[in-house]
Amino acid sequence: MLARLITIAIPTYNRPDYLVLCLSSILDQITKDQIELLEITIFDNSDNDYSLLAIQEILNKNNWIRYCRNKENIGSDANIAQCFNKANGRYVLILGDDDILVKDGLKWLIEKLSLNDYGLVCMRSYGYDKDPYEEYPRMAGKDAVIYDASQSLANIGPAITLISSCVVNKTLLRGLDANNFIGCSLVQVYLNLSALVASPANLISKRYLVACKRNNSGGYDYVEIFVEHLGKILDFYTKKGVNHKKFDRRMYLAHLPFYIFKQRCIRLEQSENLKRLNKRYGSYALYRFWLKPIASLPRPLALLWGLVTIFLGRIFYGDFIRGIYFLKNKIKVFGHW
Fold this sequence. Notes:
Layout: E1 4-12, H1 16-27, E2 38-44, H2 50-61, E3 66-69, H3 76-85, E4 89-94, E5 99-101, H4 105-115, E6 120-128, E7 144-146, H5 149-156, E8 166-169, H6 187-198, E9 202-213, H7 222-238, H8 245-265, H9 271-281, H10 285-290, H11 292-296, H12 299-316, H13 320-330
Parallel strand pairs: 1-2, 1-4, 2-3, 6-9
Antiparallel strand pairs: 4-8, 5-9, 6-8, 7-9
Helix pairs in contact: 1-2, 5-8, 7-9, 8-12, 12-13
């Protein structure tokens, strides 16, 4: 029997200031009667003492928080895997070190998980540039419990790839070793989908509960990871009864246009991207009309069409504010032709 209700595990690497903000966002919400329900662990990949020094005072005041420093940098995949494998909570939230739980997010999570059992809980996230509290979208929506894995995946959409949005029921995944998924850069997706199919009930919040720092990661091929690798994972779960056609449609209509648009802005070569995109989505007629032109048209036309698709895609999937925000802040790209 797992001892705690929730484990919040934070994998970190050389980002002490963000780690402090992340931890503070949790601790500022905790009441005394909630401490016994929580396990907070930090798994540090850092090659220096800066992260530990930054949070030492927090650890001294909260000696129930567990800090683990890896002997060497084991990589992001392995660090995320050990966050899950070493968790002692019934539910596991792997929270990125540069992400935060917004006000009342922890209260909401504890209340929901105390009252019902779910396979996967997905909390809606938003990106911020400078201040996560000032930039909070202030939108509220109803929570939804969905009793179909395919429909749950379609509703969760790209958030299935975000470690900080998804809370996994570990009691349903006994014997699962997350180390088996190292090497794909998407360990969390295997965990999330395994939980999704293990329970008929999955909870999706329409309220913004997690804030993520924008433009704070990189060093990888976005299309390779989120089209090719993710596609292989989804195909694997097709054998377990998960239909991902609606998820695919959401990806090429409302998620991928933005990233291909960004690549065209910096004049990144698209031939390899087109091969991967065509292989994954080429059978969808709407893809050929909607997303493919952003990668294949001459750059001025591609950027113009990119603006249209990004705006309409976000509107279509219920994110009007993000659509307006995008047009307001990104249309200036035309000045850099």
